[in-house]
Amino acid sequence: MITIGIGELNVCKVPESLVTYALGSCVGVCLYDSVMKVAGLAHVMLPQSTPGSTSNRYADVAVVNLVKEMEKKGASKLRLTAKIAGGAKMFESVSNNSIGNIGDRNVEAVKEMLRQLNIRIIASDTGANYGRTVYFYPEDGRLEIKTCKGVSKTI
Amino acid sequence: MSINRNENSKLDFLLEIGNIGSGNALTSLAEFIDRRVDMKAPRLEFVDFNELFGSVGGVENVVSGFLINVHGDVNGIMLFLLQNELASEVCDILLGSKLIDLNALDELHVSLFKEIANIMAGSYISALAEMTGLKITTSVPDLAIDMAGAILSVPLIHFENVFGQILLIQNSFSVDLKEYNSSIFFFLEDESIAKLMKQFGIE
């Protein structure tokens, strides 16, 4: 199991798998090539990079870099599909500033990047007000989502 | 990261802020729950997100997080992380029954916890305000019960968003000599740090 920290990304093939813990307003972007069985996961913190930034903390940078890493492992960009999870609003009343809706903005930024790259989102579990830990498996591209609210699922 | 002399005096100053503020906040807590509360040596550093979570019992550890916005002459975010066991202990002390499941909080628990957080934040901030003569106010605490990582990422993201680097003041504490891995965090904007230092006569 390869752990992906906040603002990091990684890719793997069978028998490895990927995990990222405690996504709050961050978004887990999972890309998959079902032919080559290559899986990639990015833990995105913020929607938009500042000019010149190369940090994978940002949705716009991370999605592009994740595709590149997938291709290095033999994936074809044309076959990639995406699943996304996270983007919660952890604190209900904090809505008068940028913290409040950062989850939504992260989700929108990720969707926009995927749209630009013509990568289809085939499943998602975003929003709400709880954290998510996600496990992503290259053998079948399944994404397991665990929460502390008793809401666990596979998409 | 290399730290020059100016940075060092800034760090010393912030440690002191944490000690004064958290000291007052924990005194309020001790009075409220009528128990001995001890503060541990503070931790102050430029945060590496992925290493921070060890100090709160692990990234997936379920905790109660209270977020308080700090406004006025000084702007920042205060965050209290309370371990499940401590929250349960507090319920036992004040309501006469332990709390088994944090997810099963009712309105009474929520308002009790928020009141405690409110009193702690108020003590922290009023101590700073009195010493500096600055006007500082706190918002009503907002409560989230979730994985520590998901909660801590909220202020981390906010400050990364604005400044690119995060300076964190963390004070851990024990209750009746028992360690609960509970902490008080104060995330301050750079401008506010400068203002506080000026008021204390440190340039």
Give a quick precis of the structure.
The complex is a heterodimer of chains A (155) and B (203). By secondary structure, chain A is an alpha+beta fold.
SSE inventory with pairings:
The complex is a heterodimer of chains A (155) and B (203).
Chain A: E1 2-3, E2 9-13, E3 18-23, E4 27-33, E5 38-44, H1 59-72, E6 81-86, H2 102-116, E7 120-126, E8 132-136, E9 143-146, E10 153-154
Parallel strand pairs in A: 1-3, 6-7
Antiparallel strand pairs in A: 2-5, 3-8, 4-5, 4-6, 8-9, 9-10
Chain B: H1 5-33, E1 37-39, E2 43-46, H2 49-52, E3 62-72, E4 76-83, H3 84-95, H4 107-132, E5 136-138, E6 142-147, H5 148-163, E7 167-175, E8 178-188, H6 190-199
Antiparallel strand pairs in B: 1-7, 2-7, 3-4, 3-5, 3-6, 4-8, 7-8
Structure description:
Chain A is α+β, with helices and mostly antiparallel strands. Chain A has helices spanning 59-72, 102-116, and strands at 2-3, 9-13, 18-23, 27-33, 38-44, 81-86, 120-126, 132-136, 143-146, 153-154. With 203 residues, chain B is of the alpha+beta class. Chain B has one domain: Chemotaxis protein chec. The two termini of chain B are 22 Å apart. Chains A and B meet through strand 3 of A and strand 3, strand 6 and helix 5 of B.
| Number of helical regions of chain A | 2
Adjacency order of strands in the biggest sheet of chain A: 1-3-8-9-10
Q: Please state the overall shape of chain B, judged from the principal axes of the Cα atoms.
A: globular
At CATH level 3, the topology of chain A is 60s Ribosomal Protein L30, Chain: A
Secondary-structure element sequence of chain A?
Answer: EEEEEHEHEEEE
Q: What is the number of beta strands of chain A?
A: 10
**Helix content class of chain A:** 10-25%
How does the helix and strand content of chain B classify structurally? alpha+beta
Spans where pLDDT lies below 50 across 5 or more residues of chain B: none
What integer is the average pLDDT of chain A? 92
Percentage of residues in helical conformation of chain B: 40-55%
CATH class of chain A: Alpha Beta
How many strand segments of chain B?
8
**Major sheet of chain A, described briefly?**
5 strands, mixed
Largest sheet of chain B: 8 strands, antiparallel
What general form of chain A does the structure show? globular
